[in-house]
Design goal:
28% strand; 4 strands; 65 residues; two-stranded antiparallel sheet; 2 helices; alpha+beta
């Protein structure tokens, strides 16, 4: 959640950061996002603390939802 705030510190936030965490079948999941007044999109996805710069199935699933 703090990372999202850091990324948006120079932009006008439209709401508080949304943070959701959970676990399924022993796999923990954390999601944090915040909409701002800019027109550009920045998506940073991580798996096991590794930035998956090319996305991946988890990002595809998130976008479809």
């Amino acid at each position: 959640m703090e990372f999202v705030k850091y990324l948006d510190e120079n932009r006008e936030a439209l709401h508080k950061t949304v943070y959701v965490e959970g676990e399924k079948e022993g796999t923990p999941v954390e999601v944090a996002f915040q909409y701002n007044a800019s027109y550009s999109e920045n998506i940073f996805s991580y798996v096991n603390n590794i930035n998956t710069t090319e996305g991946g199935t988890h990002l595809v699933g998130f976008n479809l939802a």
